[in-house]
Amino acid sequence: MVHGPLAILLLIEAIGISAEAHAEPPTQSATPVQSEPIQPGSALQPEQLPPEARHYEKLLSGTAVDETDDTVDDRRQFDAQRFHAGSEFGVGVPFGDLGLYVEVNVWDRLALGIGGGISYWGLAGGTYARLRPIVWGGEGRHVLNAITVEAGYAYMSYGGDPLGGLHLFPCIEECHPSAYHVSVGSHIGALSIGLEHALWNGFTLRYAVGGARLLATPKWRCELEGRPAACADAEPEHRFAVVSFAVSHAL
Question: Least packed by Cβ within 10 Å: which of 96, 143, 168, 199?
């Protein structure tokens, strides 16, 4: 048994050890840890990446992405504004050189339309389907773009001389009336490729080039001074170019 001062010292030491064992761990300083400065060529830490980069990094790595995360803007879809009405002008378009149309975006990559108008030869009406195989842009208020492939059908007057054989310029020699092909109802198919630009405010611009042809040979007939006559000239062209420009707005 230990007596005297030595016993007192041992008791004090035992109390100190017990107090240290029950004491709370020291709290960390509230001062934020300064990250190392970014050096050229060095990899960024996850917390240094913008939300968009973190989002796409998760997609590339196969990590689950929170569907409610709205830090990354999704592009607009063409079918978000389903119905459009507009006007189109050009050469060889499905509903005349100048016409009106309405269309519906049944899908982001597909639009169907119908319209009517006037052409060089007379009235025209038709329908079309437009595919958008390649789409880009459309984030926020950026323009939504697409490369388009359009197939159309038209029933229109075609083939005749709308002036009825009249001469626009003075004749050098004596003028003789000539027989001309009368415009007849014709079935025409068209195929074109172009670009489409949808603005955030509802306007859409389109332009395209391509070709058209008669789907069936009409029963041509000719007239001379308003009376039936034999056709002396060659038949009207069965193929012709298509050049169009259109503007529309969402309904």
Answer: 168
φ, ψ dihedrals at 236, nearest 5° = -60, 155
- 98 within domain boundaries: yes
Q: Using DSSP bridges, classify how beta strands 123-137 and 110-118 pair: parallel, antiparallel or unpaired.
A: antiparallel
Amino acid at 212: A
Q: Of 206, 184, 7, which is closest to residue 103 (Cα–Cα)?
A: 206
Closest listed residue to residue 126, CA positions, set 108, 90, 102: 102
Domain that holds residue 234: 78-168+179-250
Asked if the structure places residue 16 within a domain, the reply is no
- Residue 29 tokens read as 């300083």
Residue 134 maps to a domain? yes
| DSSP state string for 205-216 | EEEEEEEEEESS
Structure tokens at 13: 């030491």
> Which amino acid appears at position 59 of this protein?
L
Its pTM stands at 0.64
Q: How far apart are the first and last CA of the chain?
A: 102
80-113 residues labelled b (16+ CB within 10 A) or e (exposed): ebeebebebebebbbbbbebebebebeebbebeb
Span 31-82, pLDDT tens digits? 554 556 666 666 666 666 666 666 666 767 766 555 555 445 577 899 999 9
Q: pLDDT tens-digit profile of 192-235? A: 999 999 999 999 999 999 999 999 888 887 877 777 877 777 78
In a domain, 13, yes or no: no
DSSP lists the bridge partners of residue 190 as: 152, 212
